[in-house]
Design the sequence.
């Protein structure tokens, strides 16, 4: 479903993504991990056609992202970490606008919107009468997730999708993406919440400074590197241990 | 879920009754509806619900209608004149006002950073996006042009001879002028995008917008004067140079169809139509690919900023040195000074709002001084010169308030909570730092430029006439600080209520400026200028002290 070869992105002299190569087959949930500034969001933006790669190729659902970006975009869903929306539309107007952009006819869109409202337990009156700017962070995130899945995409990219969701919604969401994978969708899941990634993902890629560090099933990687958990492995690979020492030293500066 | 699904009132599938149900509208139609909706509502909702928004939309539309109709009032100068004169006046005013209006709104419509995350991963092409946006800008521009020309349409009936069709032809040419303005602005942005590339895009676009705003403002001041100089409007209309200007192309159509019906005007009229079509084609077809570059640049903005080291703000250097350190003893005031100084030079959104909005008040005094030097009444009527210089100085006095109004709006308004979280009893210390920054970076340099050019234009003798305006400036700044929500970067963009408040303050300040300038002129006439200055210093000093006492008492309002 997703095939990435030597994907590279440079901003001037800075290399944000440095020759990444990986594949995501149908039905797999890939955890895409890395510390801040590692190049995760830039990679996702390239795979969703939002940013042009400096070099390398990415084929999504059989279409090259550079040659056929529109065909790729028709088949993917993306939840950006910013959860950006048009704040002066109501939630309902926003979802209708998105349905319109994917060419979903009114008769098909309505029941689908209803299903999502029901799943996320969204209040219809608020959705119809309040502008998105007035929504809580969690509610806005639910609308953005709905908008990403409304057209039933074959590949879904999630960038920090749980931010702002309460515990119940987060549990529901985890179940949802596992169900989506069982239906044959490829899912790329980028997050800093490693416990969730460890439970939900079939495979994990950790990148740092734009380069791939490891690629494999979470339990396999943990065992291979002799780590206690995925979090410990992540810390070990991305220089987090040094951060622990620094945090202890820094905390001492607060002593009276 | 408690309620069944019902489509929204402003559904993207079309209006009730016209929806087919089993087919979806084209992407372009959806985008057009989206951008029209965003334009009429503004980009941030501040928690309004639909009912309140409709009322706010109505007020906003009425305000805009009134403003544009007001701009159409100068047409009365053309009352009773031939169609050629009326049409040129109308089209010149339309071109200048609608042009500057479109420049202002086009930036938010064309380059919105949040939009990239919402739309760029959806199946829409850059061509569809730019076509939809240009159409919306053209609709807005044509509507505004027609409102602005509504007075002129009626005046056509009073032109000498029989001109029954003037209203119809002029409505067409006004719409043509509106389309030309919108397409020309979009094309200018596209050319910028193509020529400068992503790296320098932000800086070049900001500079471009500021220059365009200054151009339109100066044009609105200079054009009517040009028309009346050197042999009056007849020779101005006959000048071949004037025919290079777009308003003359559109006016030629009016004159050819239902004015003098001079066949020579047909060439210019056809050229105007051809130019409008060509500019529109270049903007939405030929250069549409460059738009993709611009949108991607916005999407990657933060990344590219990381790559480029940013130089230290000059405000940081200033805050510890005299005379600034005397006014910035409080650390919160110093922090606000650095924040405002940095945002004025670094933040794209603030720059785009601040400098174009300042263009009128900074260029008007200069234009007035130049008018003095070129007017026949200049050296021969000394009191006229005195009044002109006094008015120029007093105009500058209102710049602090204008800067405050522009600086308070920002998409990052929620970050201003940091002021409330700081251990300060109220907003006074932050406002002090804000005011010092405004005076340091904008007002005093502007005043210095005017002081420098005044002797060259009006002579050394008139230079003291700038002083009443300088004395007035701190008072106006304090009055501005008294208003609600004047903290820097603290109000969402598109805050509707601010428009009314801003208009009221501007009108009151304008009256104050004129009164002080008139009093200063009379004081010169009766040989009492220096006693007047002394009186003004005392009056302003007392008023500032009283306002300062009120500001010191202010405490932070609670969030609820």
Sequence:
């Amino acid at each position: 479903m997703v095939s990435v070869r030597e994907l590279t992105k440079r901003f001037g002299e800075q290399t944000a993504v440095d020759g990444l190569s990986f594949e995501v087959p149908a039905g797999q949930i890939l955890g895409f991990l890395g510390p801040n500034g590692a190049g995760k969001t830039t990679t996702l933006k390239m795979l969703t056609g939002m940013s042009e790669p400096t070099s390398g190729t990415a084929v999504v659902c059989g279409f090259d992202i550079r040659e056929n970006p529109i065909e790729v975009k028709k088949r993917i869903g993306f939840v950006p970490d910013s959860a950006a929306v048009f704040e002066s539309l109501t939630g309902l107007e926003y979802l209708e606008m998105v349905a319109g952009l994917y060419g979903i006819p009114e008769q098909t869109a309505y029941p689908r919107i209803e299903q999502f409202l029901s799943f996320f337990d969204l209040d219809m009156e608020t959705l119809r009468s309040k502008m998105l700017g007035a929504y809580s962070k969690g509610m806005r995130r639910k609308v953005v997730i709905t908008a990403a899945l409304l057209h039933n995409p074959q590949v879904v990219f999630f960038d920090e999708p749980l931010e702002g969701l309460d515990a119940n919604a987060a549990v529901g969401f985890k179940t949802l993406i596992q169900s989506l994978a069982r239906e044959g969708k490829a899912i790329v899941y980028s997050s800093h919440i490693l416990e969730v990634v460890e439970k939900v993902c079939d495979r994990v890629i950790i990148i740092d400074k734009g380069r791939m560090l490891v690629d494999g099933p979470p339990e396999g990687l943990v065992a291979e590197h002799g780590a206690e958990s995925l979090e410990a492995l992540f810390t070990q690979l991305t220089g987090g241990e040094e951060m622990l020492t620094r945090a202890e030293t820094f905390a001492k500066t607060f002593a009276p | 879920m408690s309620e069944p699904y019902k489509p929204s009132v402003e559904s993207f599938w079309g209006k009730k009754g016209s929806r087919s149900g089993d087919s979806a509208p084209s992407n372009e139609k959806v985008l057009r509806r989206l951008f029209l909706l965003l334009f009429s509502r503004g980009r941030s909702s501040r928690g309004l619900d639909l009912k309140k928004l409709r009322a706010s939309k109505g007020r906003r539309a009425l305000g805009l209608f009134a403003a544009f109709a007001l701009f159409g009032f100068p047409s009365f100068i053309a009352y009773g004149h031939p169609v050629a004169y009326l049409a040129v006046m109308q089209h010149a005013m339309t071109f200048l006002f609608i042009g500057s209006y479109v420049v202002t709104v086009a930036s938010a419509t064309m380059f919105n950073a949040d939009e990239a995350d919402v739309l760029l991963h959806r199946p829409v092409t850059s061509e569809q996006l730019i076509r939809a946006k240009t159409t919306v800008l053209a609709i807005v521009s044509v509507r505004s042009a027609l409102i602005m020309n509504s007075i002129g349409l009626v005046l056509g009936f009073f032109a000498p001879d029989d001109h029954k069709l003037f209203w119809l032809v002029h409505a067409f040419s006004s719409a043509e002028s509106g389309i030309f303005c919108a397409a020309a602005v979009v094309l200018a942005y596209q050319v910028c995008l193509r020529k400068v590339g992503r790296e320098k895009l932000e800086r070049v676009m900001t500079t471009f917008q500021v220059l365009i705003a200054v151009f339109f403002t100066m044009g609105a001041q200079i054009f009517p004067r040009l028309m009346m100089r050197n042999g009056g409007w007849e020779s101005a209309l006959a000048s071949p140079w004037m025919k290079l200007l777009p308003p003359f192309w559109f006016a030629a159509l009016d004159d050819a169809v239902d004015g003098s019906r001079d066949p020579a005007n047909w060439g210019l009229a056809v050229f105007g139509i051809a130019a409008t079509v060509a500019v529109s084609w270049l903007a939405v077809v030929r250069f549409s690919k460059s738009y993709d570059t611009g949108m991607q640049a916005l999407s990657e903005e933060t990344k590219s900023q990381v790559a480029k080291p940013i130089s230290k703000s000059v405000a940081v250097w200033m805050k510890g040195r005299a005379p600034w350190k005397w006014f910035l003893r409080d650390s919160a005031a110093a922090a606000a000074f650095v924040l405002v100084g940095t945002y004025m030079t670094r933040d794209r959104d603030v720059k785009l709002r601040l400098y174009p909005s300042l263009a009128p008040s900074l260029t008007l005094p200069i234009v007035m001084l130049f008018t003095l030097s070129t007017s026949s009444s200049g050296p021969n009527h000394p009191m006229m010169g005195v009044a002109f210089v006094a008015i120029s100085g007093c105009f500058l006095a209102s710049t602090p308030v204008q800067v405050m109004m522009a600086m308070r709006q920002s998409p990052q308004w929620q970050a201003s909570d940091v002021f409330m979280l700081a251990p300060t009893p109220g907003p006074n210390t932050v406002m002090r730092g804000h005011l010092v920054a405004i005076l340091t970076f904008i007002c005093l340099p502007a005043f210095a430029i005017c002081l420098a050019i005044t002797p060259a234009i009006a002579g050394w003798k008139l230079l003291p006439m700038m002083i009443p305006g300088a004395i007035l400036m701190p008072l106006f700044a304090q009055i501005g600080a008294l208003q609600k929500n004047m903290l820097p970067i603290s109000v969402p963009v598109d805050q509707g209520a601010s428009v009314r408040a801003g208009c009221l303050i501007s009108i009151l300040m304008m009256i104050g400026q004129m009164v002080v300038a008139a009093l200063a002129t009379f004081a010169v006439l009766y040989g009492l200028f220096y006693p007047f200055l002394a009186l003004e210093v005392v009056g302003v000093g007392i008023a500032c002290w009283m306002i300062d006492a009120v500001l010191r008492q202010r405490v932070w309002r609670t969030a609820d």
In short: The longest strand of chain A covers residues 14-24. The longest helix of chain A spans residues 167-182. The CA atoms of residues 9 and 170 of chain A lie 32 Å apart.
